[in-house]
Amino acid sequence: MAGSPNGRPRRVRAVTDGNFGFADHAASIGEQKTYIEAISDGLATEMDNDPNVLVLGEDVGGSFGGAFNVTKGLADRFGDRRVLNMPMTELAFIGAANGMALMGLRPVIEVQFADFISTGFDSIVQFAATTHYRWGGSVPWVIRAPSDGGIRSGPFHSQNPEAWFVHTPGLKVVAPSTPADAKGLLISAIRDNNPVIYFESKPLYRSLKGPVPRGEHTVPLGVAAVVRQGGDATVISYGAMVHQALTAAETLAADGIDIEVVDLRSLKPLDEETVLGSVTKTGRALVVHAANRLAGIGAEIAAAIAEDAFESLDAPVMRIGGLDTPVPFSPPLEDAYRPDHLKILTALRQLVSY
Amino acid sequence: MAGSPNGRPRRVRAVTDGNFGFADHAASIGEQKTYIEAISDGLATEMDNDPNVLVLGEDVGGSFGGAFNVTKGLADRFGDRRVLNMPMTELAFIGAANGMALMGLRPVIEVQFADFISTGFDSIVQFAATTHYRWGGSVPWVIRAPSDGGIRSGPFHSQNPEAWFVHTPGLKVVAPSTPADAKGLLISAIRDNNPVIYFESKPLYRSLKGPVPRGEHTVPLGVAAVVRQGGDATVISYGAMVHQALTAAETLAADGIDIEVVDLRSLKPLDEETVLGSVTKTGRALVVHAANRLAGIGAEIAAAIAEDAFESLDAPVMRIGGLDTPVPFSPPLEDAYRPDHLKILTALRQLVSY
Amino acid sequence: MLDPSGATLSDAQRREVHYWMRLTRTLDDQIISLWKQGRGLGGTFSQRGHEAISVGAGFALDPDDVVAPMHRDMGCYLVRGMTPARLLASQLGRATGVNGGRDANLHGCGDLNLNIIGFVSHLPQSMPVALGSAMAFQYREEPRVAMTFVGDGSSNTGLFHETLNLAAVHNAPLVVIVENNQYAYSTPLHQQMAIEDISARGAAQGVPSQIIDGNDVEAVYEAARGAVERARSGGGPSLIEAKTMRMHGHAIHDGAEYVPDELLATWRKLDPLERFEKTLRRSGVCDDRALEAVTARCRAEVAAGVRFAEESDWPDPRTVAQGVYAP
Amino acid sequence: MLDPSGATLSDAQRREVHYWMRLTRTLDDQIISLWKQGRGLGGTFSQRGHEAISVGAGFALDPDDVVAPMHRDMGCYLVRGMTPARLLASQLGRATGVNGGRDANLHGCGDLNLNIIGFVSHLPQSMPVALGSAMAFQYREEPRVAMTFVGDGSSNTGLFHETLNLAAVHNAPLVVIVENNQYAYSTPLHQQMAIEDISARGAAQGVPSQIIDGNDVEAVYEAARGAVERARSGGGPSLIEAKTMRMHGHAIHDGAEYVPDELLATWRKLDPLERFEKTLRRSGVCDDRALEAVTARCRAEVAAGVRFAEESDWPDPRTVAQGVYAP
Ligand SMILES: Cc1ncc(C[n+]2csc(CCOP(=O)(O)OP(=O)(O)O)c2C)c(N)n1
Ligand SMILES: Cc1ncc(C[n+]2csc(CCOP(=O)(O)OP(=O)(O)O)c2C)c(N)n1
Ligand SMILES: [Mg+2]
Ligand SMILES: [Mg+2]
User: Fold this and answer.
1) Nearest CA in chain D to A58
2) Domain match, B175 and B51 both
3) Which residues line ligand 2 (CB under 6 A)?
């Protein structure tokens, strides 16, 4: 319940200069924006563009604009009817969004923390996910879920629950790692005719800046990005961990080891082609995510690689993820729990020397 | 909502004679019982043994005894105070079980179908799963979840949601495949000091008979069973799919191909030692479950094998599971959706000839 | 309490409503006998006793209104234009069914051309969906209303209360019909709740409510129509508790031995269809011949539906993975 | 409505209650200043305005009773015997904290030796857990009671209603205190619900309820003690709505600019601690010197707690994976 976005991020490497380096998938023209500003920008842009888009969630409205202020200013700009404060009843208001979406609106739902998405679980996994398959009704909403830890928020404000939803048929799941993608994936998610869960990475909110195209900007769902080229091994990751992987890769570059980094961007649909393409080239793969390693998304990716790129593999596919424990609060515990560039570095050294 | 246990099972091979063949892990002395009778037996045995055990759920009480009659007779025998009908409020009654368990009782909760476990999600994944880690409170309950399909019950009475819970830190998960294990794992689950989700396989309820030891009988959590020995490839499975795998293995035996079949029995903790031991021996692995293949438990197992038995593998680890769709109702669709011995056979032929 | 609407059925409407009730009864009986003969597929729900509610409330809606019915509301599907043939094909899992064989019995019988939202098992998930539809109408300033149905069992769920609350806060044009049939599967009311009337749950959220005789189709219509008109004119949500009795088991396989015989005997005398037919006869709206003609017509329509369904193709297994996502 | 219990505080108890309220205030103020100085860790909740409720209700329990407090109930933890030192060490993530650094702020401060159940964020998950505890007491025929606390925001959740209903059906010895502090985070009551009084929600489930002045600790004690005694003697669950105001932001980082100044000004005059001190003075239970002595004692205890906490070791990272499962 803490609601505090002001924990002290540690080990999350902020990229604060203009040369963010993802020139291949972030447009180079545009303002410098933080990750969180890019989300707000994406929301406002699409609300401007489509009167069917409305925002709902706890505390999103009025002058407040949500626990993280992502929706601040939207009520002023678009009116209270398009930015609705909800009582603390996730099951009902996500269920209501199901109805709105069936009637042609495009609600963007904020759950206050990704952790609380479980409270609305049935409305997501039972109703929204199955409706198109069962009788053709289309449920085009987006749930924005501020996820991930590393900021001393404890077991209930640090969760990464994406695996539940990737395993559930009928949902789409995205997890941007850069400001440009944050905007572009959000707009694409809103335009998609299906329920999309959009996992925001809290540790990147204000620590990460990058160029964000003005106005219209979309990033297609289901398309990963190779954010660093390299021939010796592939790291597959998403969200905040992409930056940890890049940091580790830079360290190894000094030793003459070239790591390729794939940023999945979408977790469902998963861009297996890009992943397999890279691993076929490098012959070595490490999957990294902050979520619990056990039966996480990394398991699917590793299993897919192990099956479909078997002949190309020069080493076992490795995985790094959170421990199989709740996310602990205290810094030494959370740091032990959580993957970071040092742990990635250790794993990569092992992988390339296999 | 159908509540009908009387769909016609197809392709589920009943084993109705006395020589069930799992002599290595089911005691040979005991009555012949169906899978469902064995569950009732386990419940009654442990209620007899421990006055702290009580049963709660929708329609479990009185003369009715639950949608599948698993608890029929328990109210008569142990009194209404130990067999409680609950209003249709899964979140509250699983939450209440959390409190009972903290106070030293051992509630056994029936969710009417495994599909409805999602309605009580928070009480499971947020409260029960995390409490011991966070402050030492012990939550020893069991949720009995009638799961699995193949009996024409449609998208909401056929689900296999085990992956959600295996991914969640702090829960234990079991899934018996035989009457003897159904009894033994249930008693062990009740005695365990942690929340345990016990997935029953509906298609086995009345189609499967086998010897069940009388009285006291436990099967340890976290210990898999090698239910068929073979040197050419390993099938790793659980629940109803174990029998499909055994059928496929018999077919291949006629061709001189020896398949080893590992019945996981527990999904969490997972007996990696037995799995890796077998795969190290055979060099080939196929993981099979009825649940959605994508990001299912099979992904974890395949990834673990690919990482830890890499050098032993003579072929890619294969996986078979349900499609990434809701479970469809109509027989041709459900059969296309669902793994069976023929699909396993095809995969195994491919695997052994790799 | 809700104000009485004063809306009453004309004689022509009475005849129409009677036809839908008879059709519902005939179709339900047919389904039961199909299943007893082993020609069914999976489980299916009994409708007997609920005809006045599902038909009477459904009839109170205009075509542009949206409805999210539940598993005792076959009558509502029929009133809204879903044919016995489609419903039967659906129950038998055929390609020609409402959802092409993807969902079981009445589940997933959604068709937005008829403004019907299909339900999922997880009760009462239809309720917030109906609310969201109502909120969409408000948002676009359309004069439309959403109606949904729940049981006594569902009225215990958190989602029931959350939805009423949200509807009240937003003054949404939502009508909630509670079908209090005294049981949730095998569980009698007193094991479900400690209150006398479910309508009391409206007050806890600021939703006006009303109790009606759920076996009197005219009373159902009048209350429902009143609530619909009120919602349409900006008066907000309402709750109608219709008292009735589930006359068969929960679903086809359930003998309902847990229901006391006397209770059933009392309610059998209050059968909604027989009662309405008596009224029609007494008031001269229909004579015996007219009623028999309706019965014959319904029989024929249902029989044709059975033929259609049983002769329909099974879905093509190669389509199994299609349509998970909207294009 | 609940019958008045007639239970009143003796003078000695008044002095004790005052001490706990002052300790709560002092500890809360200390936490705020630690956080403002950058010596805090993560987010933490403000308690100001809630001292009468958390202390008064907690004080109404016997040692064998169980309590499941929420994030505005620091006073209740203290009354139940959790020391400022332990609570501070917990908030600072130290090995010596209630949960060894595993959970944040007041979360997870459970200790069954003190009959306190630790809460999770997902509100109001403590409510069914308290109910289950109460049902366990019933089952074993122990004369014990369970109490839990929820906010106005939580009173909208489905789980709130489900739990009250289940408690009523089982006549469980449960006392639910609703801390209606007019806001859920930034959301005022009128955006949360369309009713005047949350106590109305008791009636919808058959749970007797009562409205009290949540800033009057004696009123809180009397109502809570009455409900506890009633529950203990087999009278079943009750609901007490304590009206109050959250005087600071939701949590440390929240300036609460969304709360009108006038509202705060009105309530500032009703400060529960000052009011109670006035009463104590007026009734001659304490004089100024005695009150100052309490303040000094609380300051010293809290200061010692800060020293203890800040000097405590961090948890050993090698223990991170231990204790997920009970042995
Ligand atoms: C969340 C949830 N839990 C359990 C069920 C299983 N179930 C199907 S119908 C039913 C009883 C419903 O009773 P009620 O709401 O009174 O409707 P009725 O069947 O009596 O018309 C139950 C428990 C379900 N559908 N949804
Ligand atoms: C299920 C759930 N959703 C969202 C939150 C985030 N959250 C934390 S406190 C809070 C407001 C709670 O309001 P209230 O119940 O009135 O308690 P108060 O904080 O005012 O004491 C919210 C929305 C939560 N804790 N649980
Ligand atoms: Mg009912
Ligand atoms: Mg509040």
Assistant:
1) D187
2) yes
3) A 1, 3, 58, 88, 90, 112, 116, 119; D 72, 121-123, 151-154, 179, 181, 183-185, 246, 250
Pocket test for ligand 2, best of D123, D152, D183, D247 (most atoms within 8 A of CB): D123
* Nearest-by-Cβ selection for C107 from B88, B152, B154: B154
Task: List the domain range (segments joined by +) for residue A106.
Answer: 23-213
Q: Which residue has the tokens 């366990």?
A: D136
Task: Tell which of B157, B180, B213 closes a domain.
Answer: B213
Examine the domain organization and report whether A209 and A237 are in the same domain.
no
Is residue B140 domain-resident? yes
Given a contact cutoff of 8 angstroms between Cβ atoms, the answer to whether A88 and A61 are in contact is no
pLDDT band at C7 (very low <50, low <70, confident <90, very high): confident
Domain coordinates in residue numbering, chain C: 11-309
Smallest Cα distance from A81 to chain C, Å: 7
B83 and B106 fall within a common domain: yes
CATH fourth-level superfamily of C11-309? Thiamin diphosphate (ThDP)-binding fold, Pyr/PP domains (3.40.50.970)
Residues B181 and B34 in one domain: yes
The pLDDT tens digits of the residues spanning D19-45 come to 999 999 999 999 999 999 999 999 999
Q: Find chain C residues with C-beta within 8 A of D157's C-beta.
A: 158, 162
Place of tokens 């209003």: B87
What is the DSSP annotation of B260-317? EEEE--EEES--HHHHHHHHHHHS-EEEEEEEESTTSHHHHHHHHHHHHSGGG-SSPP
What is the pLDDT, as a whole number, of residue A17? 36
Residue B139 belongs to some domain of the structure: yes
Per CB-CB distance under 8 Å, the chain C contacts of B111 are none
Condensed to tens digits (0 to 9), the pLDDT of residues B9-34 reads: 333 333 333 334 444 444 456 899 99
Q: Which of B187, B213, B239 is the endpoint of a domain?
A: B213
Q: Say which residue the tokens 């979520």 belong to.
A: A291
Of the candidates B353, B319, B323, which has an alpha carbon nearest to the alpha carbon of residue B338? B323
pLDDT at B30: 85
What residues are in contact with ligand 1 under a 6 Å CB criterion? B 1, 3, 58, 88, 90, 112, 116, 119; C 72, 121-123, 151-154, 179, 181, 183-185, 246, 250
A-chain CB neighbours of B136 within 8 Å are none
Count how many domains chain A has: 2
**How far is B279 from B232, CA to CA, in rounded Å?**
10
Q: What is the spatial distance between Cα D112 and Cα D312, in angstroms, rounded to a whole number? A: 23
Q: Does B45 share its domain with B80?
A: yes
Q: Does one domain contain both B285 and B348?
A: yes
pLDDT in tens, A71-109: 999 999 999 999 999 999 999 999 999 999 999 999 999
Active site residue A25: no
* A316 in a structural domain: yes
**B42 and B146 housed in the same domain:** yes
Q: Is the pLDDT of residue A156 over 50?
A: yes
Q: Considering only CA atoms, which of D7, D14, D42, D2 is closest in space to residue D294?
A: D14
- Residues A257-283: what's their mean pLDDT? 98
Nearest listed ligand to the Cα of residue C71: 1
Nearest CA to ligand 1 atom 9: B1
By alpha-carbon position, which residue is closest to atom 12 of ligand 1? C184
Structure-token pair, residue C44: 């299916």
The domain spanning residue A30 has which CATH number?
A: 3.40.50.970
In a domain, A1, yes or no: no
**Which residue's CA lies nearest to atom 6 of ligand 2?**
A1
Residues A250 and A197 in one domain: no
> What is the ipTM metric for this complex?
0.97
CATH of the domain at A242: 3.40.50.920
Which own/partner pairs from C229-232 qualify as long-range (CB within 8 Å, at least 24 positions apart)?
C229/C5, C229/C7, C230/C2, C230/C3, C230/C5, C231/C134, C231/C145, C231/C172, C231/C173, C231/C174, C231/C175, C232/C143, C232/C144, C232/C145, C232/C173
